[in-house]
UniProtKB/TrEMBL annotation:
<feature type="binding site">
    <location>
        <begin position="846"/>
        <end position="854"/>
    </location>
    <ligand>
        <name>ATP</name>
    </ligand>
</feature>
<dbReference type="InterPro" id="IPR008266">
    <property type="entry name" value="Tyr_kinase_AS"/>
</dbReference>
<feature type="domain" description="FERM">
    <location>
        <begin position="25"/>
        <end position="400"/>
    </location>
</feature>
<dbReference type="Pfam" id="PF17887">
    <property type="entry name" value="Jak1_Phl"/>
</dbReference>
<dbReference type="InterPro" id="IPR001245">
    <property type="entry name" value="Ser-Thr/Tyr_kinase_cat_dom"/>
</dbReference>
<dbReference type="InterPro" id="IPR011009">
    <property type="entry name" value="Kinase-like_dom_sf"/>
</dbReference>
<dbReference type="InterPro" id="IPR020635">
    <property type="entry name" value="Tyr_kinase_cat_dom"/>
</dbReference>
<keyword id="KW-0677">Repeat</keyword>
<dbReference type="GO" id="GO:0005829">
    <property type="term" value="C:cytosol"/>
</dbReference>
<dbReference type="GO" id="GO:0035556">
    <property type="term" value="P:intracellular signal transduction"/>
</dbReference>
<dbReference type="GO" id="GO:0060397">
    <property type="term" value="P:growth hormone receptor signaling pathway via JAK-STAT"/>
</dbReference>
<feature type="domain" description="Protein kinase">
    <location>
        <begin position="566"/>
        <end position="839"/>
    </location>
</feature>
<keyword id="KW-0808">Transferase</keyword>
<dbReference type="GO" id="GO:0050793">
    <property type="term" value="P:regulation of developmental process"/>
</dbReference>
<feature type="binding site">
    <location>
        <position position="873"/>
    </location>
    <ligand>
        <name>ATP</name>
    </ligand>
</feature>
<dbReference type="InterPro" id="IPR016251">
    <property type="entry name" value="Tyr_kinase_non-rcpt_Jak/Tyk2"/>
</dbReference>
<dbReference type="Pfam" id="PF18377">
    <property type="entry name" value="FERM_F2"/>
</dbReference>
């Protein structure tokens, strides 16, 4: 981070003093505690600064090390919202912004004082093999001190989520607990100053250590009552003083007791709740069922609660009960939860979240099998919400991944781009380097555990006697002003990746030892380290456990007599060393009432597919059974269900689900004319979902390709979406012969072609990229038709497959098709980036009209990539302020309803009404002008277009509107037999008693389509539109051949001399007569 101009304001506050709030322009960060008694860090420099940079500076001032600073964030007490790490502040805007540096990500029972709640700890190297490992502390001492100061502030100012006190007994308990916490407060001061409780109490009254509402209540009590309370407190203080002298507790113990007491007093301490205006829950399918929708409506609202121990939960509550909670209140207001709590319903835990999308105040949370769409009260609150989920995900699931681009921390992006690890401890560094020992000359780059502006390059140090790794050598990399330098080397680099790539050509020297670098170990998906917090009883459940082939048992064995082969056409084809048959599986006996419906059959039957291993390959029977057993133990919407195994003599059979529409590659070739980009994106997303699920289970598929993806639902009918399922992988890649592996190029990953070792997850990442390219190319890849020597040479030369036209998609696919397996993105990243491409709002510019630019957008309020393509026309900003009548006419035009007029869906404004965006239906073939220039159309089809234009204009005139800009460029083509009139930027309304409209405003005019009275007198009428239609008809019949340019004076002179457009060559005489009558003066 570049050095900023910070001014530090150190204020010592006594009980009689209040802290002076800065009034200068800039960003001022309040610190609840610091070793040097600093209370404000002020950024007053003109340059912008991110929230992450402010947090790092605050953490440095407090003494919090890099491992723990991710628990903290910046809070705005005025808006009651948190800032995401990538938020950019602009201090030069002339405003004074006061922010609080607070611990936001909180794990209850980190102190292990509560036996009724699960313990939490950071992972250690032993945690990977020993589930009962105690782990490392969640917090360091500086973080504990800061949390204590923050908790005291919240307790006294009543900012914690206190439950409603419903009885005198509960109120009495609250008072006693408050006094007990006040005693702990004073004990902490006594230990810090080396004084007795009595001396501390003389300087700091216990009244200042209890909630303000309780202190106010005491001040209003009678004198005798106050004296009795003071006497009781002083007596307790003497008892505590004696205990302190006897047991000698340390500062951390006192703090832990205080936090534990606060957790007991407020069961939801450390959690955050958000009131939402709309909540909709739905399944993984692209369409949400009506009963899954939970719209708050006018009478009910919903709350979401996020907690480190329970994940994301929701509940419904009455609107009259809803309040804004957990905000800083004035001293006169007593903070207390007034709404009666309804039962919280779990939605998902952090490991279940795949992706989060945001659009303004709308948030869509996608999980493996569910979806939650939320509308918050503001975009700032929406970002506050998703940054909370994103932060907890990195603390509990994957320390190097982010769920949403809009809130991604800059350092996480930097680390991901350069393959950097977080501030992991040395034992994890050594452990990872040992894992990579097979890869010679590997290194690892991580952030320093002590210094925010330093990285550490770790290189394995081999023992000279036996060659085993004894330790590792560390080299420091300095990071300053976006420049990286290796200590002892003057060379500067713009990225760590550039530095390490350069080091591959050098030898590192340290004393008499020499080191070389050939590869860098990147973080792996979900890799365990001390960066992650282990939640006992929550993590490691059955839903997230990995599957290992070595631990599998044969299951779901099916009796052969329950399989009924279809006698006609039962052989469906061939797999790898298998025959594929269609059959029916008896799944149970029916009751008597159902026999008539099943034609008297006594058994229920379902259609299945049988994969029978060829008898000549009995040597791989165990591998066949292993694969079938593995696939039968995973279940996902986009995986073909494996019913089980059956053995009939020498026949080994795998029984799996029948999928109706067959292989994806065949379907793509057959239906390519009907498939839209949206259809293909949905299919790619579903495939990525399945592979991400397998990756979380530790399962590598090994045979991902279009042929192995089956189509369960076409998704070509109106209102439907496709559904695909990934089939079983068949025989494992490492068992195939060399020729079979070469045949699978380009789907097989390059590292699998010559290796007999089991394939890794990187193989699926490569195969997914190729399959996505196959989907883009309608089921065909040029390389698939090559000979085996050509395929082999292609990989040896590290060839590149043909990229799609979309730049974003090309970059995405190229990441998958890296020849270095460790550089391929994890599936969680692939799925996130793919969804981002899907829901990217602005796709490309369509045209530039007379009044504005037209752009293609996807209208997708659900943020799930299933929206509708629309054309959005923005009024040119250079045309000055928007006239009010323009907006009024737009509001009228959007209600037009005719087959041959483009449907307007509405309009919206930006920049305080200075920019208007008109939303209309999207017609894929563009303007009729460009369409006719590219397509050879018959005269009859051209006349059909002209007839439809006449029908649309007749409807428009019946509503007493004139178009004023009728031309082939403003006619849009939906398909080969339908055109629609568009671009009403110049249209005008003709009142009932008038016959024309005189234009007074200046502006660009399409003079070559205007009648003479329009050019000379600015008079427009229904007849002037008829003239424009005559010119448009001429354009259509000449296939829009560009006319010779001329200025308006020459054009008027020609028209006055009765010169007209020449007759098109193939124009029928009847049409010529019509054109002549139209173009009369």
């Amino acid at each position: 981070m570049p050095v900023r101009r910070w001014s530090k304001r150190s204020k010592r506050r006594s009980s009689a003093q209040s802290l002076v709030t800065p009034q200068d322009d800039g960003v001022h960060v309040y610190l609840f505690w610091s070793p040097n008694k600093e209370r404000y860090l002020s950024h007053t420099a003109a340059e912008r600064v991110t929230a992450e940079e402010l947090c790092i500076s605050a953490a440095e001032a407090v003494g919090i090390t890099p491992l723990f600073h991710v628990l903290f964030a910046l809070y705005d007490p005025m808006s009651c919202c948190w800032y995401s790490p990538n938020h950019v502040f602009h201090p030069n805007e002339g405003s004074c912004l006061i922010l609080h540096f607070r611990m936001r990500f909180y794990f209850r029972n980190w102190h292990a004082f509560n036996d009724k709640e699960p313990d939490v700890a950071r992972f250690t190297v032993k945690s990977e093999t020993h589930a009962d490992d105690d782990g490392q502390p969640v917090l360091e001492i500086k973080s504990v001190e800061y949390l204590f100061a923050q908790a005291k502030y919240d307790f006294v100012n009543e900012l914690f989520p206190m439950e409603k006190l419903n009885s005198e007994e509960e109120l009495s308990l609250f008072k006693n607990e408050s006094l007990g916490m006040a005693m702990l407060h004073l004990m902490h001061l006594a230990l810090q100053t080396g004084s007795t409780l009595q001396r501390v109490a003389k300087k700091t009254s216990f009244i200042n250590c209890i909630p303000k509402s309780y202190a106010k209540h005491i001040s209003e009590d009678k004198v005798l009552t106050k004296m009795r309370l003071r006497w009781m407190f002083e007596r307790s203080m003497r008892t505590y003083q004696n205990n302190m002298e006897a047991k000698k507790p340390d500062v951390k113990e006192i703090i832990c007791k205080y936090i534990y007491a606060l957790e007991c007093l407020a069961p939801r301490f450390g959690s955050e709740t958000f009131a939402v205006r709309h909540l909709r829950l739905g399944g993984d399918d692209e369409h949400t069922s009506p009963d899954a929708s939970r719209d708050g409506g006018a009478e009910t609202v919903h709350e979401l609660m996020v907690s480190a121990n329970t994940g994301l939960q929701w509940r419904e509550m009455m609107a009259s009960e809803a309040e804004v909670r957990y905000q800083y209140a004035s001293e006169k207001k007593h903070y207390k939860e007034k709404a009666k709590s309804n039962q919280w319903t779990p939605f998902c835990d952090f490991p279940g979240i795949i992706h989060i999308a945001i659009s303004e105040a709308n948030v869509c949370i996608s999980t493996q099998d569910n979806k939650c769409m939320v509308r918050m009260s503001s975009s700032q609150e929406a970002r506050s919400f998703i940054s909370l989920l994103d932060g907890y995900y990195r603390l509990t699931v994957d320390a190097h991944h982010y769920l949403c681009h809009e809130v991604a921390p800059p350092r996480v992006l930097l680390s991901q781009a350069n393959g950097l690890h977080g501030p992991i401890h040395d034992d994890f560094v050594l452990h990872k380097l040992k894992k990579e020992e097979a890869e010679e000359e590997a290194c690892l780059v991580r952030w320093s555990v002590l210094n925010y502006h330093r990285l550490v390059l770790a290189v394995p140090n081999k023992n000279q006697q036996n060659g085993s790794m004894a330790s590792h050598k560390l080299f420091c990399i300095q990071h300053k002003d976006s420049v990286f330098t290796l200590d002892g080397w003057q060379e500067k680099f713009s990225s760590v990746k550039e530095l390490t790539n350069t080091l591959k050509d050098y030898i590192l020297k340290s004393g008499t030892d020499s080191y070389t670098i050939k590869k860098c170990c990147r973080p792996r998906q979900g890799e365990l380290s001390n960066l992650l917090v282990k939640r006992r009883g929550i993590d490691g459940s059955a839903s997230t456990r990995t599957l290992s082939p070595n631990k599998l048992e044969l299951c779901f064995q099916i009796k052969y007599k329950d399989l009924i082969l279809v006698r006609s056409g039962q052989h469906l084809g061939f797999g790898t060393r298998t025959h594929i048959y269609s059959a029916h599986l008896q799944v149970g006996q029916v009751v008597a009432e159902q026999e008539d419906d099943l034609n008297g059959d006594k058994y229920k039957k379902i259609q299945v597919v049988l994969k029978v291993l060829e008898q000549s390959h009995e040597d791989i029977t165990s591998a066949f059974f292993e694969m079938a057993s593995l696939m039968s133990q995973v279940s996902h919407n986009h995986l073909v269900f494996v019913h089980g195994l059956s053995v009939n003599g020498s026949e080994n059979i795998m029984v799996e689900e029948f999928v109706e529409f067959g292989p994806l590659d065949v379907f793509l070739c057959r239906e390519k004319a009907k498939l839209t980009p949206r259809w293909k994106f949905i299919v790619a997303k579903q495939l990525a979902n399945a592979l991400n699920y397998l990756a979380t289970k530790g399962v590598t598929h090994g045979n991902v390709c279009g042929r192995n993806v089956l189509v369960a639902r076409r998704g070509l009918e109106q209102g439907t979406s496709p559904l695909v399922k990934l089939s079983d992988p068949g025989i494992a890649v490492n068992i195939l012969c060399q020729e079979e592996r070469l045949e699978r190029i380009p789907w097989i990953a390059p590292e699998c072609v010559y290796s007999k070792a089991p394939v890794g997850i990187g193989a699926d990442q490569w195969s997914f990229g190729v399959t996505l390219l196959e989907i883009c190319n309608d089921g065909h890849l040029p390389m698939s038709d090559a000979t085996l020597p050509e395929k082999e040479r292609f990989y040896q030369q590290k060839g590149k497959l043909l990229e799609p036209s979309s730049r974003d998609l090309a970059v995405f696919i190229n990441k998958c098709l890296s020849y270095e397996p460790l550089e391929r993105p994890h599936f969680c990243s692939l799925l996130r980036d793919l969804i981002d491409i899907m829901i990217k709002s602005s796709l490309h510019r369509l045209s530039q009209g007379n009044f504005g630019m037209v752009t293609l957008y996807m209208y997708d309020p659900a943020n799930d990539g299933t929206g509708e393509l629309v054309a959005v026309k923005s009024l040119k900003q250079e045309n000055g302020p928007l006239p009010k009548y323009w907006l009024k006419e737009i509001e009228t035009l959007k209600f037009f309803d005719h087959t041959n007029i483009v449907k307007y869906k509405g309009c919206c404004t930006e920049m305080g009404g200075q920019v208007v965006q008109l939303i209309m239906e999207f017609l894929p073939f563009g303007s009729l002008e460009k369409y006719l220039q590219k397509q050879e159309k018959s005269t009859s089809q051209c006349l059909l277009f002209a007839q439809q234009i006449c029908q649309g204009m007749e409807y428009l005139h019946s509503k007493r509107y004139i178009h004023r800009d009728l031309a082939a460029r403003n006619i849009l083509v939906k398909n080969d037999s339908l055109v629609k009139i568009a671009d009403f930027g110049l249209s005008k309304y003709i009142p009932e008693n008038d016959t024309y409209y005189r234009v007074s405003e200046d502006g660009d005019s399409p003079v070559f389509w205007y009648a003479l009275e329009c050019l000379k007198l600015n008079k427009f009428s229904f007849r002037s539109d008829v003239w424009s239609f005559g010119v448009t008809l001429y354009e259509i019949l000449t296939r829009c051949d560009p006319s010779q340019k001329m200025n308006v004076n020459v054009l008027i002179s020609l028209l006055e001399r009765w010169q007209r457009l020449p007759c098109p060559a193939d124009c029928p005489s009847e049409v010529t007569n019509i054109m002549t009558s139209i173009l009369e003066l």
